[in-house]
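Researcher: Sequence of histidine kinase follows. Predict its structure.
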Amino acid sequence: MRLGITSKLFFAILLTCVVIALAMAAAMRTSFNQGFLGYLNEQEEQRMETLRPTLANAYAQHGNWDFLRDNPRRWFSLIRPPGMPASDAVPGRPRMAPPESDLTGLNLRVSLLDADKKLVIGNPRVSQNAKLKAIDVGGNTVGWVALVPFQQVSTGAALRFQEQQLKASSIIGGIAILLAALVAWLLARMFLAPLRHIAASTHRLTTGDYATRVTVASGDELGQLAEDFNHLAVTLGKNEKLRRAFMADVSHELRTPLAVLKGELEALQDGVRPLTSSAIQSLQSEVATLGKLIDDLYELSLSDVGALSYRKSHTDILDVLRMTVDAFQERFAQRSIALEVGIPAHQAAFCHADPNRLRQLFANLLENAARYTDAGGKLVITAALEQRTIRLEFQDTKPGVPDHMLPQLFERFFRGEQSRNRGTGGAGLGLAISRNIVEAHQGTIAASASALGGLCITVVLPLANGISS
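Model: Prediction complete. C-alpha cells:
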C-alpha cells in the first residue's frame, strides 16, 4: 500500500510529537525521582541534626555508649522524634503525626558509631556511602551518627504520591499526543490542499489545457508556486499560439511562390504562355522570393539559438550606415520616397560590432520603410551620440501603426496591416531578425509613433569604450 504525501506528512508530524512527548515524560520522571529522593534525603539530614544534641546529652550523662549496646528499646526511645510518646496507645492523648523523614524508615537506617567509627547499635549495614554526623562532647568527638542513604521510595504514602504523579503525567502525555494527532491532520490537509490543486492543474496542463489557472490564496512559498504555475501556463499558451501561427505563416509564405511557380510552369508547358524573357524573369523573381524567405528563416533560427556567426571588430557604425543608405538611394527613388540623412559627413561612432550584420540590420530597416511608406513620403535618419551609446532613429511618414500593434512589430511574420499582400508587406521576418542582431550587440531596438505621422524605429548601440568622434 502506497501512502500519499498527506499520510506521510501526517505520520511524520505525529511521530515527531510522540517522540517529543515520550522524551519529555522520561525526563520528567527522572527529574521527579531525583528531586523527590533529594527532598526526602534533605529531610533526613535535618532529622540527623536534631539527633546529635540528644545523643551528646545521653553520652554526657553516662560517660560512654555502653548503656546503648544491645539495648534497642533504649536506642529507639532516644531517636524518637521530640514530643512523640513512648507508646501511641496512651488514653486521652491525640496521636501526633510523625515527621516526614520518619516516613522513609529513618529509624531503621540510622546507626550509632563510637569515636573509632565502630558500630555501637543500629543498622549494621553501614557502607562507605553512609552519611556521617559527628557527636561532640566537651570539644571532643565521642561518636558518629551514620545514615544509610535513601535509594528508593518504599513507604506507602510516598509510593502513592509517586504513582499519582506518574499517572497524571501519563494522562497529560496521552492528551498531548491526541492533540498532536489532530494538529498534524489539520496541518497536513491545510498545507497539502494547495499542492493537490496545483498537481491537478498540472495534469490538465499536460493534456494541453493552457487556460487552466490556480487560485493564489496566500503570500508564502505555496502562493509563489501558484503564481509561477499561472505564469508558466500563460507562457505555454502563448508559445503554443505562436507555434501554430508560425506554422500557418510559414506554410502560407511557402505556398504562395510555389503556387505562382506551378502556374507559370503549367502555362509554359501547355503553350498558353510563350517562353519569353519576361516569363523567365517572372520565374526567377518567384524563385528569388522563395530563396530569400528560406534564407531569412534559416538566419532567424540561427539567431534564436545563438548560432548566428558574428565577426566583431572596431567598426564605425555611421560609416556602415552611410554606405547602406547609398545602396538604397535608387530603391527609394523608384518608390518616390525622399531619403534624408541628418548625420554630418565627418562624424564617426565606433563600436565593437560585425559590420556585415550591421549592414544587414540597416538594410532590413530601410527595406521596411521603403515597403510601408506611401509614395511621396520621406524617411529621416538621425544619430545622437550620448555618453556611452549611439542612438539611431528611422522616422518615416504615413501610414502609421496603431499603438497596440507597436510591441508586436518585432515578432516573426507580423504585419501592421493584415490586408497587405506579399508584394508590399514582405514575409514579416526582417524586424525579427533585426531585433536579434541588435541584442547580439548588447543594444536595444524599439518602435514608436513618428512625429512625421508614420513609424519611428529607435536603435541604441553601445560605443566601444564609450568613445566617439
